[in-house]
Request: fold
Amino acid sequence: MTIALFALLIALNIADIYYTRKILAAGGRELNPAMRWMMGRFGVDTALIVSKGFALGLVVLFALHTAILMVLCGVYAVVVGINAEVYHNMMREK
Reply:
């Protein structure tokens, strides 16, 4: 189950990157101040890949436990759902 949850967490992070890039391309902005700073400093793609890689690396090193993975998957599912809704609303308004 732990491997499946980690795989789901990776998939949710990829979906988060996908929708974040779509929102930014459609004229939206990053709401997370730390990510907004990183994107301004290093570029969108670099900031997204580095931050996701760092976060997933921490999960592997410190938190590869089922309960923690379940919580993280839930958090990312909400983030991806919000990003998807924002993006689709932006597209309807155009």
